Amino acid sequence: MSERPSLLWVDWRLSRGPLVRESIGRFLFFCLLGFALLSLLLSGGASRFLAGRYAVTAVLRADVPSAEAEGLARKAAALPPVRSAAYRDPETAWKEFLRAYPGLDSLRGAGGNPMPGYIEIRIRPDRLAAADVALVVSALRSVSQVEQVLAGEEWLPRLLRAAELALWACWGLFGVFLAGLFIVCRLQERARAVALTADFAFLTERGVPAGRLVFFRAAGAAVSGFLLAAAGTAAAGGALFASLRTFPFLERGIGPPTDLLLPRTIAAAVLFSLGAALLSAAASLLGWRAARSCRK
Amino acid sequence: MIEGFRLGVFSRGVTLWDGLDFAFGEAAAWFVTGLPSSGKTLLLSILRGERRPDAGDVVVSGESLYRGNPSLARAWRASCGYVPEQAIADARLTVGDLFRRSALAGGGVRESERMDRTDRLLEMVGLPGALKWRIAELSISERVRACLAAELLRGPKVLFCDGLVADAGVPFWEMLWGLFRALAREGNTVVLAERRIPERWALAAGDPEPVGPFRVYRLPGPAAEVKGGPG
Q1: Which one of A18, A26, B35, B44 has the lowest number of neighbouring Cβ atoms within 10 Å?
Q2: Closest to A3 (Cβ–Cβ): which among B75, B107, B112?
Q3: What pLDDT shows up at residue A43?
């Protein structure tokens, strides 16, 4: 690191104590926001939970051979919105039925197993939308071996709408906290600019252009904002990873811990850090302006 | 050469002074005296390029400070040091903070060089080991000497001091005399504004040039001095 003093860290050089306190506070705030961001990104609101509970069932005709049904399941699994498609033969279906409704063994009389084989299709959490479900359902209905498709089409749109609203509410809450952080940062920047008024006057009196001072302060705020947000999000990611490993039931709502290392999750965290950098720079500029208007 | 041409200031609804001409040559120490409220501080801020005069202009090395390129005025301010009359504005700082701030204004003082020079400068102004002292806890004399040392850290080509000699106190006049002579010998210009000049300095400087409400003395350089230290 160069020893030459730079205006980039002018606040750090002139007011270390308050800046350290503010940075610690911002880091903790970014940890919370990062935790919320990653949880939201991975869970998609209620999407992952719903996707875990919801399945499209394609009831097959009685005369469909197992090999053909399994081939059909493989084809269904190849559809873009489908996460998995598993064939259950009539015997397995009967056992599942008995597990769900014990004491109904008498139904299997002389006529043999009354349960048909079926394919259970799970939808990917990020594709759990009415259009994608309709795509899967229409693809299955067009197959002659399928007798009936059970997809809950009567109630699914309302459920998806509720999940979408919940997701928007979560993002809204996240935005409110982000806005709160911005307001707090702006007030901190303003208070610091007021406290350092004499120092800035000293510098401008000695030929340091005020514009350069403002630019470097904002640039310094952006760099520190990016680093704090990146560190906070990384710490939050670590905490989330540990939580998901320690409490596996959380995976049902949030997702597997390995999803934290997906490129799109990392890209989102980087974008969040860049956004935090921009907000920090804006808070610095607005704080400076507010401090100047206070002095007038 | 710092020249003021037909300088005029209108303040509080009256003409404070008008049509004043100044010429401060390079590599010399200048002493401007004037009565209280005569506008000494104002004159210094005009010469430093901080406050545009209501009439006239200031020319530095042939370039107008107020009618020329603003970047030249900025470069001029960057080459100047200024020890103001002591106020409570910097009371929250420590002596070390003054040096840190001064180094920032200079933009070219390395951290290791700053630490090294800070110690030497503080010792020179009679404040050894004062780096961590709070300004609020210093006497007026100590404050002005600390400020002077901090300004010297950047090695300004021109040093403006407002009330420094009076605030520093008699025991430090000899040190200041030697310092100003040394600065002038190294090619720097020092402009001091005071209510009155110490008697021995006045004797050494000879007859002042009257300029409006001010008297301008040129302190003798080492070669011109014939009577020894005036301290």
Answers
A1: B35
A2: B112
A3: 87
Chain A residues closer than 8 Å to B78 by CB: 206-208
CA distance B207 to chain A (A): 33
Alpha-carbon span A72 to A94, nearest angstrom: 20
Minimal CA separation from A212 to chain B, in Å: 12
Residues near A16 by Cβ (< 8 Å), separated by ≥ 6? Answer: none
Res B229: pLDDT: 46
Identify whether the C-beta of residue A291 lies closer than 8 Å to the C-beta of residue A193. yes
pLDDT at A223 over 90: yes
Let me know: does A160 contact A47? Beta carbons within 8 Å: no
| pLDDT (mean) for A30-39 | 94
Q: How far is A269 from chain B (nearest CA, A)?
A: 35
CB–CB contact B97 A3 (8 Å): no
Taking the C-alpha atoms of residue A145 and residue A64, their distance in angstroms, rounded to an integer, is 6
Residues of A in contact with B72 (CB under 8 A): none
Mutation site for A-interface testing, chosen from B51, B80, B101, B132 by largest number of A Cβ within 10 Å: B101
Q: Which residue of B has its CA nearest to A1?
A: B111
Per-residue pLDDT, B122 = 93
**pLDDT over 50 (residue B218):** yes
Q: How close is the nearest chain A Cα to the Cα of B227, in Å?
A: 37
Residue A92 CB neighbours (<10 A): 14
Q: With contacts defined as CB-CB under 8 Å, which chain A residues touch B112?
A: 3
What count of CB pairs under 8 Å joins A to B? 57
3-state secondary structure chain B: CEEEEEEEEEECCEEEEEEEEEEECCCCEEEEEECCCCCHHHHHHHHCCCCCCCEEEEEECCEECCCCCHHHHHHHHHCEEEECCCCCCCCCCEHHHHHHHHHHHHCCCCHHHHHHHHHHHHHHCCCCCCCCCEHHHCCHHHHHHHHHHHHHHCCCCEEEEECHHHHHCHHHHHHHHHHHHHHHHCCCEEEEEECCCCHHHHHHHCCCEEECCEEEEEECCCCCCCCCCCC
Report pLDDT digits (tens) over A254-291.
888 888 999 999 999 999 999 999 999 999 999 888 87
CB A74 within 8 A of CB A85: yes
With cut-offs at 50, 70 and 90, classify the pLDDT of residue A295: low
The pTM assigned to this predicted structure is 0.77
pLDDT tens digit sequence for A144-169: 888 899 988 888 888 889 888 988 99
Half-sphere exposure of A26 (CA within 13 A, CB side): 31
